[in-house]
Design brief:
Elements lengths: L19 E2 L4 E4 L4 E4 L9 H15 L3 H14 L4 H13 L6 H11 L7 H13 L1 H4 L3 H11 L2 H18 L8 H13 L3 H13 L4 H4 L5 H20 L4 H26 L1
Antiparallel strand pairs: 1-2, 2-3
Helix pairs in contact: 1-2, 2-3, 3-4, 7-8, 7-9, 8-10, 9-12, 10-12, 10-13, 12-13
Bound molecules: zinc ion.
C-alpha cells in the first residue's frame, strides 16, 4: 500500500508526518506557520474488498450474523484495519450465540475506536451500523461522541449526534449515564454545532428519567432528590449554558431555569 501523504490545504506543501495528528485531522504547516485541517479521504478500496464489505454490511443488517462475520473476515484479510469489518466481527463475537465475548465489543470502543482514521465512506457505514445497533452501542455513547467531536466537521457532527443520541437519552433507565465526562462531551458539542433534538431529549429527561423525582413526584426521597439535582439537573443546565447559538441558548437555558425553580421549590418543601 502506498504511503499516505497529506498536503496543506492552503499552500499545497506536503506536511511533515511528524507534525500531523490524524486523529484530530490537523497538521502544522511549516510554510504557513499555522495549523491546518487535513481533508478527509475517499476510500480507495479494491473491487474485491468493496464487494465483501457491502455483502458483510447487508448480511449484518438483515441479522444473518454468521455469514456477515465470514464476509467481514474476508475484508480483514485484505485490509486489517477496516473499522466497519472490525465492528461487525466484535459485535458478532460479543452478542451472537456461538461466541459471547462481550469484552471484544468493549475493546472495540475503548481501545481501538479512538485511534481510527476513517475514510469518508468507511465512516458513513460505521455510523449507520452504530445507529442500527443502538441498543448495544449506547453503552459507549460517551466514547462515540468524543471521537466524532474530535474528528468531524461541525455539520457532520450535528447530523450524527442528532440521529444517535436522542433515542439513547430516552432509553436511559437511570441517571448514571450523565457522568462528568458525558456532560463535558455534550457541552463541547453544544459549543460547536446545533443539536436541537438532543437538547430536547435532555430537557425531557429532566422530567421523565425514572430517577428524576419530577417523573413521579418522589421528592420525599430527600437524599436521592438532592443527588439527582447535583449529578443530573445541574449538569444538564451546564450543557445548555454552553450552547453557542444565541437563540437556542435562550430557549433551552431559559426552559432549564424554569425546571430548576420548580425542582428547588419542591425540594425545599420536602425538607421543611
Ligand atoms: Zn501551508
Amino acid at each position: 500500500m502506498a504511503e499516505l501523504i497529506y498536503t496543506c490545504p492552503s499552500c499545497g506543501a506536503d506536511f511533515d508526518m511528524a507534525n500531523v495528528d490524524t486523529k484530530k485531522r490537523i497538521g502544522y504547516c511549516i510554510f504557513c506557520r499555522a495549523y491546518r485541517p487535513i481533508p478527509k479521504k475517499h476510500s480507495n478500496n479494491s473491487a474485491d474488498l468493496q464487494a465483501s464489505l457491502d455483502e458483510a454490511v447487508n448480511l449484518f443488517k438483515s441479522g444473518n450474523f454468521s455469514s456477515a462475520r465470514r464476509c467481514a473476515e474476508t475484508v480483514i484479510s485484505l485490509s486489517k484495519k477496516n473499522a466497519v469489518a472490525n465492528y461487525i466481527i466484535s459485535f458478532c463475537d460479543a452478542f451472537t450465540e456461538s461466541f459471547k465475548e462481550t469484552k471484544k465489543y468493549e475493546d472495540y470502543f475503548l481501545r481501538r475506536f479512538p485511534d481510527f482514521e476513517l475514510e469518508i465512506e468507511e465512516e458513513e457505514l460505521l455510523k449507520q451500523l452504530i445507529i442500527a445497533t443502538r441498543n448495544r452501542s449506547m453503552e459507549f455513547e460517551c466514547e462515540i461522541l468524543k471521537k466524532f467531536c474530535e474528528y468531524d466537521d461541525p455539520e457532520e457532527l450535528a447530523a450524527f449526534v442528532d440521529k444517535f443520541s436522542p433515542a439513547c437519552i430516552q432509553k436511559r433507565p437511570d441517571i448514571s449515564f450523565m457522568s462528568e465526562e458525558m456532560m463535558n462531551v455534550y457541552g463541547e458539542i453544544s459549543e460547536k454545532c446545533l443539536i436541537p433534538q438532543t437538547w430536547l431529549a435532555l430537557y425531557n429527561s429532566m422530567l421523565k428519567n425514572p430517577d428524576s423525582p419530577l417523573s413521579n413526584d418522589s421528592f420525599y426521597l430527600k437524599t436521592k432528590s438532592e443527588r439527582v439535582y447535583k449529578e443530573f439537573i445541574l449538569r444538564i443546565g451546564n450543557i445548555f449554558n454552553r450552547i453557542k447559538d444565541p437563540a437556542s441558548h435562550t430557549k433551552f437555558f431559559g426552559a432549564f431555569g424554569k425546571v430548576q425553580t420548580v425542582y428547588e421549590t419542591k425540594l425545599a418543601k420536602a425538607n421543611s
